[in-house]
Amino acid sequence: MDAYDIRAQVLGTLSQMNDPDDEQVRSVIDSCIFDSPLRSSLCVEGRRRLAKELFDEIRRLGVLSAYLDDADVTEIMVNGPENIFIEKNGRLVRCDRRFESPRALEDLIQQIVSDVNRRVNEASPIVDARLPGGERVNIVLEPIALDGPVMTIRKFSGRMMSLGALIENGSITQQAADFLAQLVKTRYSIIISGGTSSGKTTLLGCLAGFVSEDERVVTIEDSAELHLPGLNNIVRLETRNSDLEGVKSVSVRDLIKASLRMRPDRIIVGEVRGGEAVDLLAALNTGHEGALSTLHANNPADTIKRLETMCLMSGVELPLAAIRGQIASAVDIIVQVSRFHDGRRRVTHICEVGGYVDGEVEIHSLFELCTEEGNVVLKKTGELKNTARLSGYY
User: Fold this and answer.
1) H-run or E-run covering 18
2) Same domain, yes or no: 82 and 30
3) What predicted TM-score, i.e. pTM, was given to this entire model?
4) Would you say residue 247 lies in a domain?
5) What is the reported pLDDT for 160?
6) Are residues 205 and 254 in the same domain?
7) By three-state DSSP, how is residue 249 classified?
8) Interatomic CA distance for residues 118 and 129, integer angstroms
9) Same domain, 171 and 307
10) Which helix (H) or strand (E) holds 316?
11) Which residues, in sequence order, are CB contacts of 264 under 8 Å at separation 6+?
12) Could you tell me if 187 and 251 lie in one domain?
C-alpha cells in the first residue's frame, strides 16, 4: 500500500460520513495511516507530513496549500498542471511543485467553484470565485485556455490592513493618510484607481475603516473580499452568474439599484468596470454621497475618461456633456495607486475633481509623487477647494 492507496481509503471512508468537519477528516486520515503497512516505513515526522499532504489535498488546495500559508506570497498563478508561479515579496518565482495530473487540477477547480455555488465548464469556461479565507480566484478552462486550466489566486493579508501599516511600508505618507481619513469621515466620494495588483482593494479596505460605525453600509462586489469588522450595520452583496438550469445572473448594476432601496448611508463598490458606472454616478447625485470604489486606470485623467467610457457602455442614452456633468458633481477625489518594478505599491497621486468647465471635467493635484533631494516622496502640491464639509479640519 502506498500514499495513493491511503488516499483512496480515506476518501472511501469520508464518502460514508455525513458532512464531516475538519477534525473528523484528520481523524480518518490518522486512522488510515496508522492501519496501513506504510506506517512502519515512516518516521513520526514522515507520518505527520503525509497526514498534512492528504488533508491539504482533500480539504484545502493540495500542492498550492503551502503557498497559501506563506505570508510572503501575494499571488498564486497556475498555468496548467505543470506550471505554477507565485508572486513573493513583489517578485515572480517559478515553483518546483506541480499537480500529479490534469485531472487533479480540474478536481480542485470544481471544488473551489462548487463551494461558492458557481459553475465552470466548456459552455461557461470563465468564472470568478473566492476561497473561504476571502482570497479571490479567477479560473479559465479549455478550450479558451490553450495549455490547460488557468487559475489565478489573489491572496489578502490574514490581518486587517490599516493606513498605519501602509505608512510603515512607505505606501503613503502620514500627512496624506490623515487627509484621506478626514475626507472619508466627512463623506467625500472617493475613487481609487490603478493597475492590476497595485493595491486598490487594500487601500479601499483601509479607508473604509474610517466610516462611522453607526452608519449603514452596503458593499457590492463581484467576488466578496472586503472585510470590514469595525462596522455594525453592514450588508454584503455579491454578484451571481447565470447557469444552464435557468438561474439568472445578478450583476453589479442590479445590486447598485437594489442597494438604493436598503436605506444605505454609504455604498462601497469593490470595482467599477462597466455600465454600472452610470448607476453609481446617479446614486451619488441623488443624496448617497460618501461612496468608495475602485477602477482600473493609469492616471487620474484616465480615470475620468474610463468613467465616461463605462457610462457610454451602459446602454443609457446620455450625451457626453451630461455624463461629464454627472462625473464632476458626483466624484470628489481620485486616489491613484501604482505597483513599481521592485514590487512596492505606492499612492502616486491624490486629486480633487473640480467642476465641468469648457466641456471638460477639471481635476487638480493635491498630492503627487515627486523626487526631492534624491528621494521619491508623496508631496503636497495643492489645497482642497471644496472645503464645505471640512469645517474645523483646517
Assistant:
1) none
2) no
3) 0.78
4) yes
5) 57
6) yes
7) coil
8) 7
9) yes
10) none
11) 216, 217, 218, 235, 288
12) yes
Question: How do residues 160-185 score in pLDDT, each as one tens digit?
Answer: 578 888 999 899 999 999 999 999 99
CA distances from 375 to 69, 80, 109, 169, 170 (A): 35, 42, 45, 15, 12
Domain interval for residue 182: 163-380
Cβ count near 305 (within 10 Å):
13
From the list 386, 390, 381, the residue with the least C-alpha distance to 354 is 386
Are 270 and 221 in contact by the 8 Å Cβ rule? The answer is: yes
Which candidate, 224, 212, 160, 219, places its Cα nearest to that of 187? Answer: 212
Going by DSSP bridges, is the β-strand pair 360-372/375-380 parallel, antiparallel, or unpaired? antiparallel
Amino acid at position 181, single letter: A
Return the percentage of the chain with pLDDT > 90, whole number: 48
Per DSSP, the residues of 168-216 read HTTSS-HHHHHHHHHHHHTT--EEEEE-TTSSHHHHHHHHHTTS-TTSE
Please give the Cα distance from 74 to 153 (Å, whole number).
8
Q: How confident is the model at residue 228 (pLDDT cuts 50, 70, 90)?
A: confident
- Give the Cα separation of 268 and 270 in Å (integer): 6
Tens-place pLDDT, residues 279-338: 999 999 988 999 999 999 999 999 999 999 999 999 888 899 999 999 999 999 999 999
